[in-house]
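Note to self: the last two entries modelled the partners one at a time, which told us nothing about the interface. This time every component goes in together.
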Amino acid sequence: MTSLQRVLYSTLIACGLTHSLWAQGAPLRHGAWVGVSPSFGSPKVSCDFCQDGRETGFAGMLDAGVVVAKRFGVGIEGGGWFHNVDNVGHRLWSLSLAGHYYPDPRSGLSLKVTVGYATYTASDSTGSLKAKAPALGAGIGWETRLAPHVLIQPYVDFFSTIPTTLRFEDQVVTGGTTVTQLRVGMGIRYYGGR
Amino acid sequence: MLRLVLTSLRRPLLVVSSWLLVPVGLSLSACGSDEYMATHPSTATGPSAAYGLWTPGPNDTCTKEVHDRYSTIGPDGKLYPTWHPPVDPQSGCSFGHEHGRDPSGSKLYHQVGAIPFGLANEALDTWDPTGIRHEDHFGHKIEWENDVPMRISGPAGTVLNITCDVLTKLHQGTHSKDAFTNNLHELVYHIRCNDGTELHLTLLTAIGTPGEFQRSCDPDGPAVVVGAPTPANSPDGGGRRLIPDRVCVDQYVLVPPGQRSQFNNGIHESWQVSAGLRADDGHGLAFVNPYFQVFDPSRFYDPAATNVTGRTIDLCYEVESNGDRASSSSCDASTGNGTVLGVTFDDPRSVFNGAHRVVDINSTIISNQDGPEVWYTDPFGRHGRPAPFPGSVLQFVAKVNTDYGFNVSGPGLDHDYSQGVHAPN
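The predicted structure of the combined assembly is written out below.
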């Protein structure tokens, strides 16, 4: 099964699960929230002589925020992705500010845009290959109430860094490198508002 | 496409009439994104020292005139020999020797054109008239490959994908005593990779220490000291020449009855180049370290032999007093399973012709981020300056830094050019 297939299957499973829970009620978004979301991430490092293809691995995200209006929320989220290939550990960390938009407060649909910073490393005992840069992203999810203060949200999001420098230790390898990540996950959020 | 001619590069052509002052190198133009393009004069001013050296032997059917048609004009205006097939396709006659792979198939050929054999040697005549180093015709061996995937060490190997086009020529004579003492050999090295690496290098590379070589069956052992090199002032170089000698023969080739000879261990050469370009201020601009291996060469070092040159084919007939002798498919093939006596080293039936070779690309490192791309060096690749000088050779080094901190290394290019070939080759 390819990486992309794994991501797509994960999405389908998440959507199916959400659909079965939908009957439990529309979301209630009030006040502040904290959340955690296990996911699969599929990053790609792109440069003039980077390999094609994506590597899929386990990812996770922690987020917190507050609903500031019926249709708007703001938050902060930190993500991590992990994958090992041939004794080389690949890691992708991101920290972003997120703006959430709920087109219909009675619906579970949730859109977001993010602005943050991402760091990609591939490392072994010989050193680390690294790219780090500001990143812009967007995502879509569907929140469903699981309990009075608990919502779950399957989501798909994507971010890309701006072009940056790929370095091995401190040595420049190439410029114009971007790191992108496609991520599919299932978030669980606790809303503290009444 | 906008085609620019770098005005500074015209100078070699403008002073061609004053040949003693001509910097020998490839004229060059930049096409579009500064693509290296070698251009040569259209009319020859005279022959180079390397031109016209070959004459047919008893086993060759081509005339000298047919052979000398395979020539090219060097950037200094002189006529040089260049690559030709072992058999002339027009007349069908045979030259009996080969120069490796037809360079016209290389993706770099449209940039570099026909490779003049002996260009750096010719430049040395001007740079140091007291240290002349001319090489024979047989030894010029071309190898190339397109889209060579490079091996990348460490974590970068899981992220990066570097491929290169490589076209190289080394003068690697393995039929005579020349390399027993002489460490100066002409190297032409063209490489272009998708990471921005681009290097077009022509120089006399000093391979190891002059006057001696390393025993191929004991490469880290003591050197085999032979005698005075040519020229006498040959510089010491990096790398080493691994050449078989009688010790290797006794150890791996002449074996007790019932055992098989190990020709690949006993009679195998590996010339391990460590060459580079250096600016006048000592800054290293580029470095390459290809290894040039030869299997089944026609010679080995034997201080007891005529011209200290033992002939590999003779080992197929030799029986030591203790009964040790050669036992191998190579000997069987050369002697009709022992039924044909008296096969000599230059007999086409001998498979010991030095035509099976492997070129290990290994590493190319460029440290020239601030440029310029065009450098003129002395024939040894040193004293690089942006402007030509008497006896200089033009080199092209891309404005990049590829000293990444991890190893990028090319594989071996393995080809056997034995068809229609015999020693000396």
